[in-house]
Amino acid sequence: MAGFSGHAVIPSLARDMAEPERFDSMINWAFFVATLIYGIVGAGGYFMFGRDVSDEISVDLMKIPEYNQTLNKIAVWMLVISPLTKFALCTRPLNVTIEIMLGIDQCHVPSLSIEQPPSPSRKQQVHIDIIPSHHAREQRNKILRAVERISLALAVVTVAILFPEFGVVMAFLGAFSAFMLCVIGPICAKAALNKKLEVLDASLLVIAIAMAGAGTWVAFTTGTGA
């Protein structure tokens, strides 16, 4: 479900789109393509290795010397590069939230009041007073944003180094958090917007809550998430 748990970045994507009105079409196509790719790869792994296929098909490919080792290495390096391409996108909502809390988010030039239009001389004076201070503040905020984003990335790397095998955390993320982001959250948001909860949505919500609860219980009781 990891490929479908990107709902946290959807508001940022919608805000940054050049044509936000095409968001619905874009997100439908994105999930369609993701589902198609996941289905093809999953089916290929099952047909090649049956029920013994690993969570990562690259692990199985590397175990079989008959396969082209060059292609195997390319597949492994693609897996290494993939998180790097997603990191900035996935951490953007968190970065934006932290920047807003710290008051270093990107700001715009203050607009003049339209209630009492200033005279041309007054308008020019206000422009002279506002623009330099705005640019100076934005330059300072730009430096602080760079420091904040680098610090967050270093914090993530530090946690990964200190806790290289946090199976319980990963099991919790896969059980509770993934269901919360992929199923429970979107259904609750839809119900809140429509002011009603349909039968199908209610059924999916109950199933998702049950599966999330069961997965979370197994993760913390077994200590491995297995």
Describe the structure in brief.
The chain is mainly α and 226 residues long. Helices cover 75% and strands 0% of the residues. Belongs to the amino acid/polyamine transporter 2 family.
Q: Given the structure, what is the number of helices?
A: 7
Helical/strand content category: mainly alpha
Poorly predicted residue ranges: 112-116
What is the terminal-to-terminal distance? 16 Å
Helix content: over 70%
Shape: globular
**What is the average per-residue confidence, as pLDDT, rounded to a whole number?**
76
Strand content: under 5%
Count of distinct strands: 0
How would a textbook summarize the main sheet? none
| Helix-strand sequence | HHHHHHH
- Rg to the nearest angstrom? 24 Å
Topology:
Layout: H1 10-16, H2 23-49, H3 57-63, H4 69-102, H5 120-162, H6 167-194, H7 199-222
Membrane topology: Multi-pass membrane protein
Organism: Rhizoctonia solani
Keywords: Amino-acid transport, Membrane, Transmembrane, Transmembrane helix, Transport
What can you see in these coordinates?
The chain has 226 residues and is an all-alpha fold. Helices cover 75% and strands 0% of the residues. The model is unreliable at 112-116 (pLDDT under 50).
Keyword list:
single chain; 226 residues; mainly alpha; globular; membrane; AA_transpt_TM; transmembrane; Amino acid transporter transmembrane domain-containing protein; transport
